[in-house]
Every structure is written in structure tokens, then in C-alpha cells.
Amino acid sequence: MGGRTLVCGANLPCIYATFSSCVKHSSESREKTRNFQYSKVSRRMGGIATMASVLLAGDAVFNKDGAKGFEFGMVALEQTVEQAESGVKGHAQAMLQVKALLESKSWKEAQKELRKSSAYLKQDLYTIINSKPGRQRPQLRKIYTDLFINVSNLDYAARDKDAALVWECYNNIVVALDDILSRI
User: Fold this and answer.
1) Vertex 25, ends 19 and 30: CA angle to 5°?
2) Minimal CA–CA distance to 152: which of 101, 178, 114?
3) What is the pLDDT of residue 26?
4) Where are the domains of the chain?
5) CATH code for the domain defined by 81-183
6) How is it placed in the membrane, per its record (predicted)?
7) Burial class, 60, CB count within 10 angstroms (exposed 0-12 / middle 13-18 / buried 19+)
8) pLDDT for the residue numbered 81
9) What is the DSSP annotation of the chain?
10) Would you say the pTM of this structure is higher than 0.90?
11) Which residue ranges in the chain fall short of pLDDT 70?
């Protein structure tokens, strides 16, 4: 069984320059010609090294575990509709439990918990909405969008320590959650 090799070939334009002269070339001009030929090779090696570093650094740059922002991975491929339905109420409750942190004005902790619980809830709701018949989806997506816009606004309000906006967004989240959970 033969192994397959990975070949990375970039379609970069290659420019070949031809120099002609009637003057006899000195050793200095021969050295410049050699350097010109080596520069094509070093440019190619530089391109390969850049591509390799981008590919290898990609995991470090796009690693979701280190990020403290919202989780943008929408659907876990291994998540079934049954798993999403069984977890959605628990994740909704976890999001509503942020209220205690908001009351104590623990803004940073509230943001962290909100982000964590909203990521799981978002994944569950997305999976459930996509499993529904086509005529029900637009209504559910509208509520879903309103819900997570308010989650983002609550996050920003907590960052700015704007208590009035925090409570307005929290109340909107409660209404949207009640609405979407009653429909699914």
C-alpha cells in the first residue's frame, strides 16, 4: 500500500527575464545573474514557508476554547434533535439564572455565564428549528433572532454597566424564551 504525498503548488506567475548585452560579462555581473536565479528559488521557499505557517497556526488562531466571546459553531454534527430537545430547557434555565449575577452587579461573571449558556441554547434551538416543517421555520427564526439580539445587547449593556438596559434586555429574553419554548 503506497502512501500519498501532499503537494502544495501555488499558481503564482513566474516571470523569466532574459538579459542580452554586447558587453563582455564580468565576474560581478555573473554573480548578479546567479543571485537573480536564486531569488526565484528563495521566493518560492518563502511562499511555501508562509503557507505552512498559516496552516499550522490556524488551530491556534481559530481555537474556540481560548475565546471568551460567543460560540459561533451552529450545529454539532453529532447532536440529534432528541438531544437538542432534551437539553434546550436546561440551557434556557441556565441563561435565566444569570439574573442572580445581574442583581448582584457581578457584570463580568454575568457576561461569562450568559455567553456560555447562550452558546448551548443557540445550538439546541438551531437544531430544533431546522427539524421543524418549512412553514413553521420563519416564525421560529424570527423569535430566535430577537432572542439572540437581546442576548448580545444584554452582554454589551453588562459590559457598559448600564443597569436599565440590562434589565430591559433581560425581560425581552424572558419573553422570547417563553414564546419559543411554547412553540417548539
Assistant:
1) 75
2) 114
3) 59
4) 13-63, 81-183
5) 1.20.120.290
6) Peripheral membrane protein
7) exposed
8) 84
9) -PPPPP---------------SSPPPHHHHHHHHHHHHHHHHHHHHHHHHHHHHHHHHHHHS-SSS--S-------TT--HHHHHHHHHHHHHHHHTHHHHHHTT-HHHHHHHHHHHHHHHHHHHHHHHHHS-TTTHHHHHHHHHHHHHHHHHHHHHHHHT-HHHHHHHHHHHHHHHHHHHHH-
10) no
11) 1-47, 49, 51-78
- 180 phi-psi bin (left φ>0, alpha ψ -120 to 50, beta other): alpha
The whole-number pLDDT of residue 84 equals 84
Distance CA 69, CA 155 (A): 10
pLDDT of residue 48: 74
Residue 180 near residue 140 (C-beta atoms within 8 A): yes
